[in-house]
Amino acid sequence: MADFKRIIMAHSFISSRKKTYLAQLSELASRNGVTLEWEEMSDGPDHHTIWQVYPIVNGQKWTMYIQAASNKKDAKEKSAEDVIMKLRGL
């Protein structure tokens, strides 16, 4: 886990609509042999569901990066951005 954190801190990420933080984080994990999964939880009625998501890195739950949104995709993107920004001190 600590190794992936160091890798994230050393990597140069870009803010782009073409390449999301989620895509960049997933690619970085894949290139470095890191298993990156996402825990997804939903709450609320169908017409107003809130999704909460956080990463699981090599089996370790990174719950400190939990984020919520009205859909899974946005919640994952927000969580990935949170990981990157917090670890890089931004």
TrEMBL record:
UniProt key word Iron: no
InterPro entries on file: dsRBD_dom (IPR014720)
Ranges where the DRBM domain occurs: 20-89
Superkingdom, taxonomy of origin: Eukaryota
Protein name: DRBM domain-containing protein
A UniProt-annotated Pfam family: dsrm
GO molecular function: RNA binding
Keywords: RNA-binding
